[in-house]
Amino acid sequence: MKTVQNFGLMYILMVVGQMFICNYFHLSMYVSLTILPAIMLCIPLSAGTITAMLIAFASGLAVDALSDSVLGLNALSLVPVALCRKPVIRLFLGDEIIERKESFSFRQNGFMKIAGMTAICLSVFLMIYITADGAGVRPLWFNAARFAASLACSWLLSLLVVNILTSAD
Question: Whose CA, among 14, 15, 55, 157, lies 20 to 30 Å from 32?
Fold first, then answer.
């Protein structure tokens, strides 16, 4: 399976796209659009967990610094996604894909598996992001509504990003 030739360039462009989303697409106070967990999920499996966590920290900090966000909030939320990336892939796709360090795609693995992996990574990210952003001062119903709305909107956008980053030639 052939991966995207210029994954590093595509990764940087997607992070810049996240910066534009953070700066210009405020749908409401209940919706936080993010594609960062989907980008993190698509990092090639040849990169180890520590490398993925360092990339996540740098990417999250870059988005925080160059967008209208609290400094460190995306970095705080994205590092656990990088930590649980391989266990989530192992849960949905099995051990073979990790041992062979293959890439995955919608065509090869199916929509439901990729959609499930994306939803779990988004859920981890959004739970930490919304909890840290509210800092314990917002009520549970507000955080739950924000989580549900953000998960629904971000999931649809993230599926498009995963399809772009994992497209097979």
Answer: 55
Terminal C-alpha separation, the chain: 8
Residue with token string 């990764």: 11
pLDDT above 70: percentage of residues in the chain: 96
Calculate mean pLDDT across residues 17-39: 89
The third-level CATH classification (topology) of the domain covering 7-165 is Arp2/3 complex 21 kDa subunit ARPC3 (1.10.1760)
Residue boundaries of the structural domains of the chain: 7-165
Q: Is 36 left (phi over 0), alpha (psi -120 to 50) or beta?
A: alpha
Residue 4, pLDDT above cutoff 60: no
d(CA 133, CA 77): 10
